Amino acid sequence: MMKKTTKRLIICSLMVGFMQYGLSTSFIEASPRNGDQQQQEQYQKEKERQEKQGQDKHRQEDKQRQNEQRQGQQRQSEQRQDNQRQSEQRQEQQRQDKQRQEQQRQDQQRQNEQRQEQERQYKHHQEQQRLEEQRQEQERQYKQHQEQQRQEEERQEQKRQYKHYQEQQRLEQERQYKHHQEQQRLEQERQYKQRMEEKRQAEQRQHWLYQKRHDWSHNAYRDNNWNRKDYFYDEPGPFQWHETRYSTHERFPSSEYRMERIYDRDWNDRFPGLHSYRWHDSDRYNQGYFWYQGQRIRDAVLFYDDGDELVAIGFNHGNRFIFLRDDHEEYHHNNNDSFVLALALLLLVS
Question: From start to end of 230-327, where are the E strands?
């Protein structure tokens, strides 16, 4: 590549020189009137120029030869380095081949040792497995024997439990039979007592029907303002018929308990022959509750006769004035008598 470039430079220099020489010749011919001295000077300049070009050419050729020599030396040095590197690579390859062969030999030896170890372990495992199977078979036989023995014990236990169950069932049947006999006897006694109690209550009812009671024949208790209810009311809760006020105070000894006398002429005119007392229930001092048809009565009027005996009780229930008498009769006051109802509400609520 450098040689071709050098040749091209030389050819270009020659062509430039010839062209300048031609131009100079043309100039001399075109100016015949110039002197020889001028031609001589031009010739001398051209010659010097050509010599200079020749020197430049020689210098370039020398420089090119030096470059070529230097490049040749460099190529030789590179080739020597390449040869040395290739030699080192061959030596390294040979060393690696030897190491690889040694490694392969060691691997092969290690594989042989591992294979032998595996065979030994396999034989040992086979032996252990055989011993384990023998042990498991012995355990299975032992467990089977234990299971058979347990089943036999369970059968014996079931037989014993069955006998015990039969015995318990027999005893239970005997107990139930005795209990049934006892229950029948108690039921018969209860029924007998119930019949006797019913008989006693009937006799007591007949006794109350014919015993001493207040005279309710006054017209105030027979007018159209009263409606009789077909209901037998025995003992009115915590009170007792024909009980005196003194006895009532004795049964309710608390100092807070008291009955207030009602001093009202209109009220007393509507209940002739009776003395009215306001009564109020309280959890602090009463020893019994006064109930009527499932409702607790808190306020009531107790009616006493001239002998100071309890003969009637009055109270409000369902917007009606209820009047209980000692003849076991119950009366409701009609709502058309608004004065009595208002007065009862006033007396009971106040």
Answer: 260-261, 275-280, 291-292, 295-296, 299-304, 310-317, 320-325
To the nearest 10°, report the CA torsion of 286, 212, 325, 233.
80
Residue 220 in this model has a pLDDT that exceeds 80: yes
Contact 277, 286 (CB under 8 A): no
Beta-strand relationship, 260-261 and 310-317: unpaired
Separation of alpha carbons 269 and 264, rounded Å: 9
With a CB cutoff of 8 Å and minimum separation 6, the contacts of 166 are: none
The domain spans of the chain are 227-349
pLDDT computed for residue 136 by the predictor: 92
Long-range contacts of 58-62 (CB under 8 A, 24+ apart): 60/6, 60/9, 60/10, 61/6
Average pLDDT over the chain, rounded to whole? 81
3-class secondary-structure state, position 345? helix
Is pTM beyond 0.70 here?
no
Q: At residue 262, does pLDDT exceed 50? A: yes
The first and second tokens of residue 125, run together, are 């495992």
